[in-house]
């Protein structure tokens, strides 16, 4: 698909899929789903100031041309109308990414990818004009919208990539086409979609697969045995692809054959006791530096990753640390806060067995308020029981569990079906002078409890 009519010689390309958030002069891209049809809002978008509407419905297109002129409407070709137009949006984003031709760092992982992205953006912004994924726009629609928000003024971009099913990362790397990549870690999350922990590994590894077969760079925590094994497996498979006599496919390079030695990654260990050797793309988990606004020792590996990548791009370690110390987390991600009555650690944006256990291990307080973990499928009972067992082993002083998933466990702790139920309880049984870990998924709405703590 040739998108040159829309992107050639442009300094920026504002694209929106939502008429409720429509910057003046932007391009409106109509997407469709089971419960909505963006084509129905195309005329409204033009009336509200969009410069063009890209639609997939031929009748809508004809009406737009009649009412607004051929220069303000575009009909997506049939081949790009799949999945409600998402394929077309991805095609446009890929074309814009190639038009800009700036370095892109791809980040994925079970836990820590958003925090690492934010930390890395803080570090790199001390030297470069950076664009990075806003919020959690990290899926099949969010990644294209992220790419389409980059402008020619930006020198580099950081693109976060999420996954909940096999093949998700492969899809996203083929849109973003990253030059550099980092997997923070792999853990037991979205097991209902992945099927198993091995499914998580295979899917996250798709970032390594892309970089190794497209001569990119990999930043890797050598303290993580899962990442090391994934890298070795990906390197083996990449060597087979790069030396294959068969023609290249969409997932392999279009250049001539290369030897495995041509891959720009280094797998040599190094003697550094702390952050790693950034010119080789390798780092250790390191130790938690003092003076940051981050809580939880598990953030040490996120900080190490940001510093390693920063040093690779010419930012001295101390300068990077200064940027990290100035960073203040938001959106209830590992935030320390004091209320009138208690001290809280609020980590209420994401919860899976791996992140839940890490948070519990790092917590030194006396009160745990934990939400249920979603999308675990057949593993749900086992993983919730593991959390209950872990709390018992730690001899937790006070525990409140939210979600019926905990009712199937042999929990000695009170279980509340909803957050509202716990709010009602806390009104008559207030907590005072406690150090509280508030941990759960965004879908648990654990932040609702804050006024009661």
Task: From the structure above, extract its key features.
single chain; Udp-n-acetylmuramoylalanyl-d-glutamate--2,6- Diaminopimelate Ligase, Chain: A, domain 1; Protein-Tyrosine Phosphatase, Chain A; six-stranded parallel beta sheet; six-stranded mixed beta sheet; 35% helix
Describe the protein's architecture and organization.
The chain is of the alpha/beta class. It folds into 3 domains: 4-83, MurE/MurF, N-terminal domain (Udp-n-acetylmuramoylalanyl-d-glutamate--2,6- Diaminopimelate Ligase, Chain: A, domain 1, 3-Layer(aba) Sandwich), CATH 3.40.1390; 102-326, UDP-N-acetylmuramoyl-L-alanine:D-glutamate ligase, CATH 3.40.1190; 335-452, Mur ligase, C-terminal domain (Protein-Tyrosine Phosphatase, Chain A), CATH 3.90.190.20. 35% of the residues lie in helices and 14% in strands. It contains 15 helices and 16 strands. Helix 5 (113-124) packs across helix 12 and helix 13 packs parallel to helix 14 (380-393). The longest helix is centred in the middle third of the chain and has 18 residues, at 225-242. It is globular. Residues 246-276 have low confidence and may be disordered.
């Amino acid at each position: 698909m040739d998108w040159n009519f829309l992107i050639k010689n442009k300094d920026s390309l504002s694209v929106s899929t939502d008429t409720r958030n429509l910057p003046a002069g932007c391009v409106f891209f109509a997407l469709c789903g089971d419960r909505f049809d963006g084509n129905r809002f195309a005329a409204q978008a033009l009336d509200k100031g969009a410069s063009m509407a890209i639609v997939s419905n031929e009748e809508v297109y004809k009406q737009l041309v009649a009412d607004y002129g051929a220069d303000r409407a575009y009909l997506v070709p049939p081949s790009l109308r799949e999945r409600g137009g998402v394929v077309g949006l991805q095609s446009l984003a890929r074309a814009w990414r190639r038009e800009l031709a700036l370095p892109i760092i791809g980040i994925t992982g079970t836990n820590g990818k958003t925090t690492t992205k934010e930390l890395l953006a803080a570090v790199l912004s001390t030297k470069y004009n950076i664009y990075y994924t806003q919020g959690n726009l990290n899926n099949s629609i969010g990644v294209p919208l992220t790419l389409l928000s980059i402008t020619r003024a930006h020198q580099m971009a950081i693109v976060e990539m999420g996954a909940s099913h096999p093949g998700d990362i492969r899809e996203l790397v083929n849109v973003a086409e990253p030059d550099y990549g980092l997997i923070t870690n792999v853990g037991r999350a979205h097991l209902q979609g992945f099927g198993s922990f091995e499914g998580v590994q295979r899917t996250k590894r798709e970032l390594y697969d892309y970089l190794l077969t497209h001569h990119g760079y990999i930043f890797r925590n050598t303290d993580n045995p899962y990442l090391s094994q994934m890298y070795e497996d990906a390197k083996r498979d990449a060597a087979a692809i790069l030396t294959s006599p068969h023609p290249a496919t969409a997932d392999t390079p279009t250049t001539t054959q290369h030897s495995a030695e041509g891959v720009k990654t280094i797998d040599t260990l190094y003697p550094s006791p702390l952050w790693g050797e950034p010119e080789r793309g390798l780092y250790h988990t390191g130790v938690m530096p003092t003076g940051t606004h981050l809580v939880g020792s598990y953030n040490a590996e996120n900080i190490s990753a940001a510093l390693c990548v920063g040093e690779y791009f010419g930012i001295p370690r101390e300068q990077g640390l200064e940027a990290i110390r100035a960073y203040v987390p938001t959106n209830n991600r590992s935030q320390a806060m004091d209320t009138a009555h208690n001290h809280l650690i609020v980590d209420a944006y994401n919860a899976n067995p791996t992140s839940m256990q890490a948070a519990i291990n790092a917590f030194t307080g006396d009160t745990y308020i934990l939400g249920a973990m979603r999308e675990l499928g057949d593993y749900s009972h086992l993983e919730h029981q593991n959390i209950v067992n872990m709390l018992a082993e730690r001899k937790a002083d006070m525990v409140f569990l939210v979600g019926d998933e905990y009712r199937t466990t042999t929990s000695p702790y009170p279980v509340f079906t909803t957050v509202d139920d716990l709010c009602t309880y806390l009104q008559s049984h207030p907590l005072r002078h406690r150090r509280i870990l508030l941990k759960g998924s965004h879908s648990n709405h654990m932040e609702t409890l804050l006024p009661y703590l």
